[in-house]
């Protein structure tokens, strides 16, 4: 007997139809994106209904594979804001023994921010580095360019995240922070160029990587 509820079945059908529409529209626009990056772009478009992300999303060589491998090792996922943390698929992450954290509300981070003048998101990155949490981590930034700039500075100081998802959104230092990340050759990165990005986009990227890691979507 099929114990799958009609609502679950309907949801799966809607998702399948949505991705079929996305792929058809990408093809109609002559936007051919190679796998495995295509799986990420499709998830971002599914989340935003914005096909511009097909042209804005960029990845360093081997970045998608680096993200998949880090997740399969059970890495820590560090986010710049709680909204990104809340949206990450815990079931798939825990399947590999991984976990997700946002340190913005940590008392030590708040004290560091007050003492240094850093934003809390940036202070959280600095504190995470001091605790040794950044090395081998997947860092997902969907809101704060200050956090991305601080992370880049910490990489200069020896931090070694497995991959950086650099997708802050906004008008002040957003473009510049992403450009600075894209200039790096010592860390894997996935970026949405320009002003666009945001917590839902960063979350969709991490969840797409998780689906690739579990083999539910096509991977390299």
UniProtKB/TrEMBL annotation:
Signal peptide: none annotated. Pathway: Cofactor biosynthesis; adenosylcobalamin biosynthesis. One of its GO terms (molecular function) is precorrin-8X methylmutase activity. Residues 13-211 form the Cobalamin biosynthesis precorrin-8X methylmutase CobH/CbiC domain. InterPro entries: Cbl_synth_CobH/CbiC (IPR003722), CobH/CbiC_sf (IPR036588). GO terms for biological process: cobalamin biosynthetic process. Transmembrane segments: none annotated. Keywords: Cobalamin biosynthesis, Isomerase. Belongs to the CobH/CbiC family. This is Precorrin-8X methylmutase CbiC/CobH. The lineage of its organism: Bacteria, Bacillati, Chloroflexota, Chloroflexia, Chloroflexales.
